[in-house]
Design brief:
Largest sheet: 6 strands, mixed
Number of helices: 3
Radius of gyration: 28 Å
CATH class of the largest domain: Mainly Beta
Number of domains: 2
CATH topology of the largest domain: Jelly Rolls
Helix content: 10-25%
Number of strands: 11
Distance between the termini: 111 Å
CATH architecture of the largest domain: Sandwich
CATH superfamily of the largest domain: Galactose-binding domain-like
Structural class: mainly beta
Length: 260
C-alpha cells in the first residue's frame, strides 16, 4: 500500500468514527413535517393543536377547531351594519374578559361604560358566559368593529353571539354611593332577532321601573330606563339578552345620570 492510499484509509476511518460519512448534521425531514413537533416546527403558529404549539381558542381568541385562525362568518357576533362578524377582536378578550369582573361599579358612577377596558367593572350572570370572542364556550365578549361596521363610542363594544347553542345572560353593575333621587340608565344597541333583550334597573330602594325593550335595529339606537328611584345609595343596572343560532346583539356607551 502506498503512502497516499494509507492516508486516505485513515481519513475515511476518522470520518466514520464521527458519523459524518453517511448522514446529514440536521434531520430536515423531521423539521419540515410539522407533525407531533412539541417544540414547534412548521406546525407552530399555523393552526396546530395546543400540544403541537398551535393556537388555542381560550387563550388566543381563535375558534376551537382552527387554533387561533381568524373566525369565520359562523363564529363571530354580527356587526353594527348587520353583516355577521367573524373576525377576531383586536382585544382578544382584553382586560380579563375570560370571566366576569369581580367588582361592581365605583362609588356613584358606572365603571368602563364603553368597554374600552374590556369587561372591567361589569358582571355577568351566569359568569361563565362572558369570555373571549370566536369560541362557543362564551356568548358575550368585548370586540372592536368588524369590516365597515362602527362602534358607538371609543374602540370597543360588548357583543352577544353563539352559533351552536342558546344562551341567557345578564350583564350588570351595582353602583353604590349614590345620592337619593331620580335617575336614568341608558345605553346604545344594535341587534338582530334575539329572542329577548331589555334594559333594566332593580334593587335601588324604590319601586323597580319597567324594563325597556331593546328594539330590532341594525343601526345604533339609544334605549333608556327612566324614573329610577334611588333610596339608600345603591342600584343595580344592566341588560338581559337571550338568543341562539344567528341571533346577535351589540351594546356600547352606557350612562347612569341624575334626572328622568
Amino acid at each position: 500500500m502506498t503512502e497516499s492510499s494509507s492516508s486516505s484509509l485513515i481519513f475515511a476511518v476518522f470520518l466514520a468514527a464521527l458519523g459524518l460519512g453517511s448522514c446529514s448534521l440536521q434531520n430536515f425531514d423531521a423539521l419540515g413535517s410539522g407533525v407531533n413537533n412539541a417544540t414547534g416546527g412548521l406546525d407552530q403558529g399555523a393552526g396546530g393543536s395546543p400540544s403541537d404549539g398551535g393556537g388555542n381558542a381560550a387563550t388566543q381568541g381563535g375558534t376551537a377547531d382552527t387554533g387561533g385562525a381568524v373566525g369565520t362568518s359562523s363564529t363571530g357576533g354580527r356587526s353594527a351594519s348587520s353583516s355577521r362578524t367573524g373576525g377576531t377582536s383586536s382585544v382578544g378578550g382584553a382586560s380579563s374578559t375570560g370571566g366576569a369582573s369581580s367588582a361592581g361599579g365605583a362609588s356613584g358612577k358606572l365603571v368602563n361604560p364603553s368597554f374600552e377596558s374590556g369587561s372591567n367593572g361589569w358582571m355577568s350572570d351566569p359568569s361563565s358566559e362572558l369570555g373571549f370572542p370566536n369560541s362557543s364556550l362564551y356568548s358575550a365578549f368585548v370586540q372592536g368593529p368588524i369590516g365597515t361596521a362602527t362602534v358607538h363610542q371609543g374602540n370597543y363594544q360588548l357583543s352577544f353571539y353563539n352559533s351552536t347553542r342558546t344562551y341567557q345572560v345578564k350583564i350588570y353593575q351595582v353602583i353604590t354611593g349614590i345620592s337619593d333621587g331620580q335617575y336614568t340608565f341608558s345605553g346604545w344597541f344594535t341587534r338582530g332577532t334575539v329572542t329577548t333583550a331589555y334594559l333594566y334597573a332593580t334593587g335601588c330602594g324604590g319601586t323597580d321601573p319597567a324594563h325597556s325593550a331593546i328594539p330590532l335595529s341594525d343601526i345604533w339606537t339609544a334605549v333608556s330606563v327612566t324614573g329610577i328611584a334611588v333610596a339608600g345609595g345603591h342600584c343595580e343596572v344592566g341588560f338581559y339578552v337571550e338568543g341562539s343560532g344567528p341571533d346577535w346583539l351589540n351594546a356600547d356607551d352606557f350612562a347612569f345620570a341624575a334626572g328622568g
